[in-house]
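To the team - zinc ion complex, inputs and output below.
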Amino acid sequence: MEKRPTGNPRYANGALRRKYRARLRAMGGPCGICHGRLGPIHYDEPSDAAHPLSFVIDEIKPVSKWRQFGYASPRAAAEDWGNLQPAHYFCNAQKGNKTGVFVADSGQKITKSPKISDGNW
Ligand SMILES: [Zn+2]
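Output:
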């Protein structure tokens, strides 16, 4: 048996997420963030940094702020169909990195982390 961490609500219910993904893909709508400014979503491409116009699910209200938006749990926010919209990989990444420095080709944030030593003082 494979053990997987269940801490992240986005991945806690993979089956439902896949269903939502399939539904959004079938609807074939425009990106909810740029509203088609960058063109249609490339639904047939893999969702990664190499395909900035590929399809990802965007949470309109960030799951991390579930309390603020009145959800019962982070999972409730992640699974609320009304909170989901299709988006470009690129647009979603930019939105998600508002508070950090966006690195287009890696999707990683550059943050200054304090140096913490766990050795003896
Ligand atoms: Zn977009």
